[in-house]
Amino acid sequence: MDKYQDQVFAQALKYTGNPDEAEDITQEVFLKAYESLSAFRGESQFSSWLYRITQNELIKRIRTRSRLPEQLEENPETSFSYSDMFKKWSASLSPE
Questions:
Q1: Nearest Cα to Cα of residue 58 among 19, 96, 95, 26
Q2: Is the separation of the CB atoms in 29 and 53 below 8 Å?
Q3: How many domains does the chain have?
Q4: What is the span of the domain harbouring residue 74?
Q5: What is the mean pLDDT of residues 12-31?
Q6: Using one digit for the tens of pLDDT, what is the confidence trace for 42-67?
Q7: Quick one: pLDDT at residue 25?
Q8: Which residues contact 33 (CB under 8 A, 6 or more apart)?
Q9: Which residues contact 29 (CB under 8 A, 6 or more apart)?
Q10: CATH assignment at residue 8
Q11: Where are the alpha helices (DSSP H) in the chain?
């Protein structure tokens, strides 16, 4: 599991640029994976399934953040822009 945890964390960190946010996302991804493990049909690799859960969590975070009032987004500890995070995420998607 450490291998997958490192991959999810690296993916989240790539898009957020914030280790604390990436850790929160990693925990949420593994919680969701555990809760829906019975839905994993084995038609793809486990890592692909986990990657999709991670992408969905990143999308959810982006949408949630975009709904926050602007004053809450101006957190001095936040070293990234959510619009930049969305641009990075959308650029990484395959055209399929």
A1: 26
A2: yes
A3: 1
A4: 2-92
A5: 94
A6: 888 999 999 999 999 999 988 887 77
A7: 95
A8: 49, 50, 53
A9: 8, 12, 50, 53, 54, 57
A10: 1.10.1740.10
A11: 2-16, 19-35, 46-67, 70-73, 82-92
